[in-house]
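ok trying again, last paste got cut off:
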Amino acid sequence: MTKDFLETAYAERDVHETQSMYNAWSKSYEADMGGNGYATPARSAAALAEFATDLSLPLLDFGCGTGLAGQAFKDAGFSVIDGTDLSPEMIAQAEAKQVYRNLQTLDAEAPIPQDYPLMAAVGVIGAGAAPLSTLGSLLHALTSGGLLVFSFNDHALADPQSVAHLNEWLDCGAARLLFAEHGEHLPAQGIGSTVYVVEKA
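nice, full thing came through this time. structure:
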């Protein structure tokens, strides 16, 4: 199953197709990703911990999946973590980890929860997952002075619109780039990712 899911994971699809794919992938997702050296959650957690002044502030793990990022954030010292995801089957896997304060199935049409000073979108934005417009939606919802950690894998970085979406916020001063580092994402597949931390003005 690993080969099939990973081969199709980055294909364009609509919301319902994405939800169906991740529901079907939920039980083997961690074994599949872990077997390929999935590095972005730990990298993202370390980057956010470097700049967050208070690890007890509420953190929203947007697109939390089975909770791999949530576990990485807990291991990095974050103590109040909420998660949301499009796939109820993924949410069920995340719930078993007991690292989240609250978990909620995401309604694609609903606004992103507000009042979070810390947000994360680890491996979430790009082809085959959430649209690039999600970045702006997250930054709009983030509190003033809040921090967002997110990643663009190599597939997303191949689309110049990915970084352009980020630069729209940076160039006008609505957000400030604190960290950007390219590194391993799925090393066994030869795929990297850039992890970013931005501060909302």
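cool. Residues 40-51 form the longest helix (12 residues). The chain has one domain: 2-200.
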